Amino acid sequence: VQVVAAPKPETAAVTAETPKPEVATYTPPKKAELPVQQAAIDRTTPAPNATGISSMRWPVRGRVISGFSASGAKKNDGIDIAVPAGTPIKAAENGVVIYAGDGLKEFGNTVLVRHENGLVTVYGHASELKVQRGQKVRRGEDIALAGMSGSAEMPKLHFEVRKDSTPVDPSKYLE
After folding, report:
1. What is the pLDDT along the chain (175 residues), one digit of tens a residue?
2. Residue 27: partners with Cβ closer than 8 Å, 6 or more residues away
3. Is the dihedral of CA 83, 84, 89, 90 positive or negative?
4. Of 48, 107, 134, 172, which residue is most buried, by most CB within 10 angstroms?
5. How many other CB atoms are there within 10 angstroms of residue 32's CB atom?
6. 9: which residues sit within 8 A by CB, 6+ positions away?
7. Which region, left, alpha or beta, applies to residue 164 given φ > 0 means left and ψ of -120 to 50 means alpha?
8. Apex 129 CA angle, 126 and 134, nearest 5
């Protein structure tokens, strides 16, 4: 039996004069760091008319585990409500979604809704978002599912009410 070696493919000689192909360097896209204050003043999409009910509805039913605190060591711009993972989060009032995403590190998956009266509601720590930016939502409509995204150590909803991008006590607005 005679073994015959396969012919070697010809290779091009590389010299110093051989131009190297230009390769653009890859820059990964940056994750948007959108502060709540910046998103809260976005007024590009008009909010739908309010329901006419004087107070907002609770976005979930659960135990408030952390209340509003405007200052101090335990500053909290909203309230935290303990609920089972997967609990539907409801819009507190008619409005338009001005942010839906996970660019707010602390809150993870977050929805911001602007309302007719200049208020903005914030819904953080969702496991799943059910709305997108620019979408109009009605009071009581499911906008997300509660979860443990962001810095949450247990399933909960972080809920804020902002007036002119300044956090205000949500309990004064809820029924």
Report:
1. 566 665 555 555 555 565 555 555 544 444 444 455 455 445 555 555 555 567 899 999 999 999 998 776 778 899 999 999 999 999 999 999 999 999 888 999 999 999 988 899 999 999 999 999 999 999 999 999 999 999 999 999 999 999 988 999 999 999 8
2. none
3. negative
4. 107
5. 11
6. none
7. left
8. 130
Distances from the Cα of 122 to the Cα of 23, 96, 158, 165, angstroms: 43, 12, 8, 11
Q: What is the pTM of this model?
A: 0.71
- At 14, the amino acid letter reads V
Alpha helices by DSSP H, listed for the chain, are: 36-40
In sequence order, what are the beta bridge partners of 100? 111
What is the 8-class DSSP label of residue 36? H
